[in-house]
Every structure is written in structure tokens, then in C-alpha cells.
């Protein structure tokens, strides 16, 4: 399934915000490898640092220590043209489909900008754009539509097409289904599951929902307060969680086997 | 409706139209007439409607002829302020952070410096004259406009499509032209209109004090300057022409600005029709055994039915769940029950009662607050961040129960203990931001409990919370229900949540209740309606059956 060298290598990553006494440590000692063609899910609750990890991977946040290499290039050390090239190798699909598309520009404009950031001419790349719209199961005439004419799920499909049209080596999906209704979420997850196989995507899928990532990930990383508390193949993490926090998280999902909210006689917390 | 709203815009545009026509035609038609010399200081007459000035010129004709120069100067100065202001304000957001902070502070400092004083300095340096007045007023307007543009750009540049473009490798200049400017064009247009009015008065003021247009040219300010001795000599009519024209033009610009702002803001165009229900008493026959009895409830907005005749009941001590996706009408149903429908929504029902209380008729707010307790979705935004928790939590008790401060405090501290919030006394003194999301939600449930309501309506009570915290809050609601027998109505998009928490569940889809089912039967196998099945199938679950291990 995978080549020898991992596409993403995160080594002893430390990220802090603020200076001096007000320094807050957001990520601590993160080491993760993502092999080519695999999907690693990063799961954690609010404050776990999962979004900061995503931003660090795309180079939007500078680590205070450690390194992030993607395709052999150090993300944080890259400058100038090398950095621009580097940035196009890693694409982030953002969380909120309502703010990730410019309301004043058509879907065609948005995709053309991804293909050619300089000129962004739709006519020049119409064929490529339409074929990618079809890949995410959107009709060709979406090209001339504006974001407000599309539903949340359709916008998220467009955002996915925009992320993939660049043919990135790595895709970072940051909570891409959390703003959607469950039936739409299921559609998007099916789409991602299909594209992952068809295109051989290397992906980091970030989510707060353990149930969501099960179907689409090869490995699962559980983050808690900025540290990796569990990392392993998906089946192992779900069926035989090693860390206490992972068990708590699994049992907190309504409908999970360990989920229980029946009143118990317990002391005041 | 919107046409009436935009009366100001129409009026402003027609006023400006008249002024522009004057500016175009007056110098062609009246130039010779305005230069003719006649009797000095003549009072208004059939020949000279507004009299003549110290040199014997017709004041009315001169005022009309001056329109062109005044407008041109105002437009030029506004253009300088707007163009350079927008350039500065936008480019600030494309700079590296340190440089940006420096520039923003510099702009702040310049805004604090009086604009007219800056204009006087510039005019004094460049020498008196029309073009230096234009440059002076234009330059003086830059910081103000730059700051407003900077604020707008700050908001737009934080949106995800801008950061995405940046990650795609789009250059900063292109980001500015492609994404920033189009998304702030409306407010900028509105601001430009009001800047125009300000510039008009500023330029006129410069000419009035003699630093603007010099003889033999004249604009409105210069005419005012010439009229000043007449005013002091009891001949005020010489002032009327330029003064009226300045006021009319300024008014036109302000009206256009306000009209554009109203047109750009869709909320301003909406009329607020009262959310009154048309029928005032419940008609339908009561059904036995229900605390809450709702029959044929429909809610419409603007002729569109959002909830289409839903009937349900809640028994004493029961937890009823309403589940559905966005747009299904689940929240509207709950809000209608609490008489909290937003303005413009009209509800209709044959019966809506809570015990012996008729919810279709008017219910005193105090009685309502004691009968129904509300728990909202986002514990972050329901509390006022400026007030201590104690003040906010005791408010209902103090206003509606008329309890004293001490009694209300004791009651709330008890309730906080009931929902097992740690250190209740200390929490009362804290501000909302000092509590975690789960703690705030516990506090809100405590406040809802404190009035001993007969029904608690919880609208997505755990949606904004982490799963581990969600499980705690669900456990709390379940415990309160079984210990105190309080009826609870839970609204949620999460079928897993309602199945775990509720006794009975109503599935809503596009304004209709498509299925009513015991929570225990909420599985793909026992659900009847295809939408319920689809919803269940779409919900990702953690079950051991799917596992490979």
C-alpha cells in the first residue's frame, strides 16, 4: 500500500502561542509519519491542538521546535518560490463551506484561481475544471454559478474539487463535515472514501468526531491537550483502545457500546 | 416595500441630478449674465431674484455658475481621499504583521489630528488656490478613509477564502483586487457618499476663510466669503444662494449614502410584522394524559409554510425528542410553544396548551418564565460576558418570582448544586468566560430549573459541546428528569443524542412530522418512514458489529 519514505514527517513538533510568562503550549512532542496513499485521522476535542496541527502542516503556523517535512522539503524553512511551490503540494480543505468560497466570484473563477493563481481565466481551463466538477459529482453548469446558489454540501464538494485540482501530494481536511447536516455529511464522507481510493490520496483528516473518521482512515491519532495519547491502525484504536482518554472518548459517542447516561448514584463532581 | 424604504435614495439621486444639470448648463447659459455689472448691493427684485453683490453681479446667477467649479473640486478631493485611503487601508493588510501594526498606529495618530487643521497647513504650504484646496482636503481625508477601509479589510481578510487563496499561491496584490475589494465595495460606496458631503463643506470652508479659490474664479465658499460683509450690514439675502446650494448638495449626498446602506443591508429592508398568532383561544378537544397538547400547529413566513400542521403531546415526566436536519422546522416548533417566535413569523394552531395554560392566547411573561424553562444551544453566547454569573442567573427569580436578592441567590446556589456544578458559591462571583462550555451549560440548566418549571425546552443543548462534555450534560438532564419528574422537550439534529436521552421521538422533515416513535425502536429495522431510515443510515456510529477485529 505504501512507499518506503513517508510523505509527511512530523518530528518532535512543539508549538506555543504568546511570549514570556503568557506562553501557552499548544502542541508538545508530536511525531507522526504519513505514508504515501494513506489517510491518517487526527481526532481530539476542543483545545486538543488539532487545528493548530493542520495550520502547522500547511506552513501557516511556525513551530517553536521540531520539524515538519513534506515530500522531503522542510515546510518551515522554505522561502520564496520554493515556499510557493511547497504550498501547492499541500492543500487544505477548510471547515466552513460558507466562508471558504468568495461570494462575489463564480465557482469557475474559484477553481480557475486554484489552477492558475496569476491569471485565473476560466475559459482557458474550462475542460479541466468541468472534469473535476464531475469527479466530485457536480454538474458542468456549476461553473457559472455563485456560491449562494449552492447548498452547503454542494459548496463543500466544490471546496474539495478546488483542493484536488492542484494535484497536491498531501490533502489536509480540517473538520470538513462538521458544518453539514448528517445526510450531507454521509454523502461527503462517501465521496472522500471513493476519491481516496481512485486518486490514491495521501490525507490528514482532522475531526472531533470519532464515529466520522472510522470509515475513511487507515490510522488514527488521538490528541489530548496538545499531546498524542494514542496512535495506531484504525481497527486497533477502535476495538482495543490502549489509553484511558481514548476509551472515554469512544464511550462518549451516543449509541456506542460503552455509552451510558442512565442515572447512577454518584457523589457530587 | 423596498421601494418605500429607498425613498431617501430616490430623493437623494434626484436632488443630485438637479445639481449636476445646473453644473453642466449654468456656466454655458449664465456665464455672461453672471459677469455683467449692475447696481451694487441691489435688494432682490424681478431682475435680480437674490439681489446683487458689492461689484454689482447677480448673486443667483453667480451661485448657479459656481456649481460646476464647486462640484469638480469636491469630486476631485473625494477621489483623492477615497483612492489613496482605500489603497493604504487595503495594503496595510497585505504587509507583514509588524509593519502592519506600525502603519495602523500611524493611521490612528493621523485620524486623531484634526482634518481641517491639516488641510490649513497643506493649503498654507502650497499657497492659497483652488487646486491646493483640493489637495489639502483630499489629503486630510485619507487617514479617515484608510482607517475605515483597514477595518473592513481586516474582517474580510480573516475569512477562509482569503487564507485559501494565500495557500494556493495567489499574490497579495491579486488577493486585494480579486477578493478584498469586491467584498467591501458596498460599505466603501456608502462611505464615499458621506465623505463627499464632508468634503463639500470642508472645501467651502477653506474658500470661505480665503485659502481656497481666488478671484476672479469663484465657488460657493468664495461667494459666502463675499457675502459676509453684507450679512453684517443687514443684507442677508446675498448669503441665501450659495448656502442653499451647499445644503441641498450635502443633503443629496447623505441621502444617497443612507439609501445605499439600506439597500446593501437586506435586514433593513424587512418590515417587522408582529409575530402574532391569528387565533386567540384553543379550540380542539383536549387529549387525555398530556401535559403539553399541540394540535395542527403551522408556522408561516411571508406566505411560505415552514411548519405544516404538526400535532404532538408531552406527558408529565416524559422526555420528548424532536429530531430533524436544518430547515425541518424543529426549532420553530419549540419557539412557538414558548411564544418566542421571531418577528414576521405567524403561527396558527387549533390547540396549544400546557396544563391549564392556553398558549395560543396572551400569557403574562412572568407566568411564562415560571412555566417553561429554556436551555439554548450555545452556552458561550447566551450569557452576557460583562455581568457576573450570579446577577444573570438570579434575574428570572428576582423579576418574575419577586424574590429578594438573598433568597434568589440561595435558590440558584441550590440549583447549581443540583446540576452538580463544582463550587457553586464561587461560580456566582465569576464571569461567564471563567467557566468552561460544559460548566456554562450546567449553569443554564440550573437557571431553567430554579423556577421549578413544568416543562424544560432544550434547543440543541449539547451541539456546541465536546462529546465527553455532551455525555455529562445528557446524563444530567436524564437524572433531573427521573429525580424531579420534569417534562423535557429536546430539539436536536443528532439522532444518537435523542435516542439515548428521550422516551419518545418525533422525526421532522420539511415542516412535517414524518414519524413518531418510541426511542427504543429508533433503528433502521423498526423505523417506518423512509426519511427516518435514511437519517439513521447517514448517522455514523460506533458499533462492534462493523469492526474487523
UniProtKB/TrEMBL annotation, chain A:
Source superkingdom: Bacteria
Pfam families documented for this protein: ABC_tran
Gene Ontology BP term (one): transmembrane transport
CDD domains, sorted: ABC_NikE_OppD_transporters
UniProt KW keywords: ATP-binding, Nucleotide-binding, Transport
A molecular function (GO) term: ATP binding
SUPFAM superfamilies recorded: P-loop containing nucleoside triphosphate hydrolases
InterPro entries with a match to the protein in the record: AAA+_ATPase (IPR003593), ABC_transp_ATP-bind (IPR050319), ABC_transporter-like_ATP-bd (IPR003439), ABC_transporter-like_CS (IPR017871), P-loop_NTPase (IPR027417)
Occurrences of domain ABC transporter (ranges): 10-250
Coiled-coil intervals, chain numbering: none
Family: Belongs to the ABC transporter superfamily.
Protein name: ABC transporter family protein
TrEMBL record, chain B:
Residue ranges of domain ABC transmembrane type-1 in the record: 67-257
GO molecular function, one term: ATP hydrolysis activity
Major site of localization recorded for this protein: membrane
Entry keywords, A to Z: ATP-binding, Cell inner membrane, Cell membrane, Membrane, Nucleotide-binding, Translocase, Transmembrane, Transmembrane helix, Transport
GO CC terms, sorted: plasma membrane
Organism listed in the record: Kribbella caucasensis
Organism taxonomic ancestry: Bacteria, Bacillati, Actinomycetota, Actinomycetes, Propionibacteriales
Pfam families: ABC_tran (PF00005), BPD_transp_1 (PF00528)
All copies of domain ABC transporter, residue ranges: 292-535
Residue ranges crossing the lipid bilayer per the database entry: 7-30, 69-94, 106-126, 132-150, 188-213, 239-261
Protein name: ABC-type dipeptide/oligopeptide/nickel transport system ATPase component
Subcellular location: Cell membrane; Membrane
Lineage: superkingdom: Bacteria
Membership in a protein family: Belongs to the binding-protein-dependent transport system permease family. Belongs to the ABC transporter superfamily.
Bilayer topology: Multi-pass membrane protein; Peripheral membrane protein
GO biological process: transmembrane transport
